[in-house]
Amino acid sequence: MKIVDIRATTVTMPLEAPLRHSNGAHWGRFVRTVVEVEADNGLIGLGEMGGGGQSAEAAVTGLKPYLLGHDPARTEALRWMLANPTASLYNNRTQLLAAIEFACLDLQGRELGVPVHELLGGKVRDKVPFASYLFFRHPNEDGTGEIRTAEQLVAHARELVDQHGFSVHKLKGGVFPPDYERECFRALAEAFPGHRVRFDPNGAFSVEEAIRFARGIEDLDNDYLEDPTWGLNGMRRVRENTPIPLATNTVVVNFEQLAANVRDPAVDVILLDTTFWGGIRPCIKAAGVCETFQLGVAVHSSGELGIQLATMLHLGAVVPNLSFAADAHYHHLRDDLIVGGKVPYADGAIAVPEGPGLGVELDRDKLAEYAELFRELGPYPYDRDPARPDWYPLLPNTDWADPS
Predict the structure, then answer these.
(1) Contact criterion met (CB below 8 Å) for 201 and 169
(2) Which of 129, 204, 221, 320 has the most CB atoms within 10 Å of its CB?
(3) Measured on CA atoms in the order 67, 43, 303, 291, is the torsion positive or negative?
(4) Distance of CA 260 to CAs 173, 179, 272, 294, 297, Å?
(5) pLDDT tens digits for 48-94?
(6) Are 258 and 289 in contact (CB under 8 A)?
(7) Residues 6 or more apart whose Cβ sits within 8 Å of residue 211
(8) CB distance 100 to 39 below 8 Å
(9) How far apart are CA 334 and CA 373, in angstroms?
(10) Transmembrane segments in this chain: where (predicted)?
């Protein structure tokens, strides 16, 4: 095969309610860019990346001089063509590379009539378990959907357990004062005896606050404490002062940082993200390093629609040392762009796709519908809170939202 065209379409996908995090909020929707790579045999491979608008579409289509005529099976060459580490100092294309890699793997699988996991060594599991990714939420315009109190949090988690069968629960924190969030987290854990929990304030705590927070939850059945503070050295100091394993998706996101963590451990569990690391194949390489040095591995979520979800499932299918349930924002979506609509959970897990390539098909009507919605609504600032327009966080943060 040879690549003959590449296209990008930015969409916005409504959420059940605005999701709050330590840097601001998802304003009731995700903005994603769908990438299509067309080969000379008429097949089209699908990719997806976060963010979007004219700039993302221009960045993707700007890769045409690199990609036209390239064999999509030569994915290792793509890494050097698009994301050479010295050239990337001037133009970091890691997430662009990821979207192109997804599409090229999809093309290979479609051409051969096999799922992507067969191209990556073959699956070792048929389904990937997921955690109930929980957020504090702003209310919708009609007043519904708010999660601000421990009671609202537990009620929402119970709905998700009843609907999807989750037995692992992750709470995104860093929004309200740490003592308040700790009590909400404890209420969540105590409401589901026998379930496992994890907490993630996105690096918003000081080292000292992170240690204090950890000591207040050490009696719970914690998978890990994710990014309680910022930076490898800060994480190392916290790790020295708590028996809870530490996890990250922010301070170990490439092989240089992974090497530094192996030489001088600061993090116990690496959350691999198929976009942050530049594709599925780099994540598998990183998982191999983690297997060698006995570091834990999980799958990170960066706000996926069905195309990227498929990449997470194929990654989860082939990594033998995936010892934790994956994260996914997916159950917060109101809809999806793939044929058949949202992929279902069963007993807290999602089945690995078995169709050729990524195993998902693009619903052209949905693509047009949500591309038009993006044109109507435009982007939103991920690192701002619509309820606090003049606020922005510091690291470590001390200016918390008022839970009352």
Answers:
(1) no
(2) 204
(3) negative
(4) 27, 32, 16, 15, 17
(5) 999 888 899 999 999 999 999 999 999 999 999 999 988 888 888 99
(6) yes
(7) 237, 238, 241, 242
(8) no
(9) 14
(10) none
Residues annotated as catalytic are: 172, 300
- pLDDT at 91 (0 to 100): 84
The residue with tokens 């026998």 is 194
State yes or no: cis peptide before 389, omega within 30 of 0. no
Which among 169, 172, 241 has a CA at the least distance from the CA of 206? 241
Residue 287's pLDDT band, with cuts at 50, 70 and 90, is very high
Q: For the beta carbon of residue 254, count every other beta carbon within 10 angstroms.
A: 14
Other CB atoms within 10 Å distance of the CB of residue 384? 17
- 299 pairs with which residues across the strands? 272
Q: How many residues does the chain have?
A: 404
Percent of the chain residues past pLDDT 70, beyond the cut: 100
Buried b (16+ CB within 10 A) or exposed e, 207-233: bebbbebbeebeebebbbbbbbbbebe
Is the pLDDT at 300 greater than 90? The verdict is yes
Give the three-class secondary structure for 21. strand
Predicted TM-score (pTM) of this structure: 0.97
Would you say residue 365 has pLDDT above 90? yes
Q: Residues 194-247: pLDDT tens digits? A: 999 999 999 999 999 999 999 999 999 999 999 999 999 999 999 999 999 999
* CA gap 273, 302 in Å, rounded: 7
Euclidean distance between CA atoms 116 and 279, whole angstroms? 13
Q: What is the CA radius of gyration of the chain?
A: 20
In 3-state terms, what secondary structure has residue 82? helix
For the CA atoms of 271, 314, 311, 7, the dihedral, rounded to the nearest 10 degrees, stands at: 150
Structure tokens at 326: 């994956």
pLDDT at 53: 84
CA distance 193 to 58: 50
Separation of alpha carbons 195 and 221, rounded Å: 7
Q: Give CA–CA dist 241/144, Å, rounded.
A: 40
As a whole number, the mean pLDDT across the chain is 97
**Residue 234 DSSP label:** H
